[in-house]
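Reopening this one. Same input as before:
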Amino acid sequence: MVKTGLKKDIEVVASGHICLDLIPAFTIQDKVEKITDVLIPGKMINMGRCVVVGGGPVTNAGVSIRRLGVKTELIGKIGDDDFGQQILRWYEEHEGHFKGIRMAKGESTSYTIAICIPGIDRFYLHHCGANDTFGYEDMDFDLIRRAKLMLFGYPPWMRRLYEDTGKELTQILKKTKELGTTTALDLSLPDTNSYAGQQDWKAILQDWVPLTDIMVPSAEEIFYFLYKEQFLQKKARLGPRESVLDHITVEEIAQVGADLIDMGTAIAMVKCGHRGLYIRTAGKERLQGLGAAKCADLDNWAERELWFPVYQEEKFVGALGSGDSAIAGFLAAFIRGHTIESCLRYANAAGSMNVTVPDGLSWNKGFDDLTRRIESGWQTKELQINEPGWKKYRQFWVGPNNRGKWE
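Same output, byte for byte:
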């Protein structure tokens, strides 16, 4: 039973995976052909300054949303080790106190070392730490009760949440919906050979997606979870410097959107990296059940299918956290009651600004700064869609299932 009439004095709570990001700066000027040209056993590599910041979607998305002027709280779990203390110090120094961050005695804190070599696709050395033991009792449901929207990030990197067909996160999502809070879910791609990679993700999502109002996965991860065999086939055929994303067709991404709507979500926004954002939405009846964070105009949001290209970035430094930033831009506009078209602009604006800095946060100069950039006539990159039924309108590509009202 959904509880109504609860005071909602927080706009967004960002929950889920939290870690410490360590981003050592390579001083190499030219693009590198092979990683083994740089990482050579026994070689001393001179490095630049290491950026050390709070990371994971709780930080990259949650703090970004907060810096975009939205009242935001965070929920996450860290260990009582040096890295955990470092995360708390970073929060206190840069953002203030978040009472939803729980320090677990005797556990280790998650960390990520981001290896970003010019010309080579980034990769990460990652330790899940206390994220793996995060469960229902680690949620601060008083914060959730007070929030209009909860964003949960990266459960595929949180072992207890996905074990036993994901019943722990299912319980969390059910409770959140009962409290009248809108739910949003971001995923992450596990190592396909790991324990997480061997789970029956399609069965897990059958339980999670109907309890999620806004799905915001990347194209690669959701394609892996829903169509694992096709994903692995594409991965096996990759050439040098190619990613699976480069081989997922518009038709396949549109099918992902349709499947997520059929599974029960209201809004499916698929992050497609340098190719921009795809969005598919359900009809008015499903959209009316969103919870406290509602669509401002149902006619504008219902039954839409759009693809919005990325903006031209000033310079490219790295894509660490760019997906989280895109989510932050989208939700910051959504919670303000913007149109679907405007939410996509803010999503891509945030993501495009993110790639100009090495971390996931220092791009953020506030919502007004994004507004100024968008309204100044910021141009999008060239994107061509040749699939049947797609057509260009303004800066958007419009899919064959688009029936709603334009802004």
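So the earlier flakiness isn't reproducible anymore. For the record, The chain has a mean pLDDT of 92.
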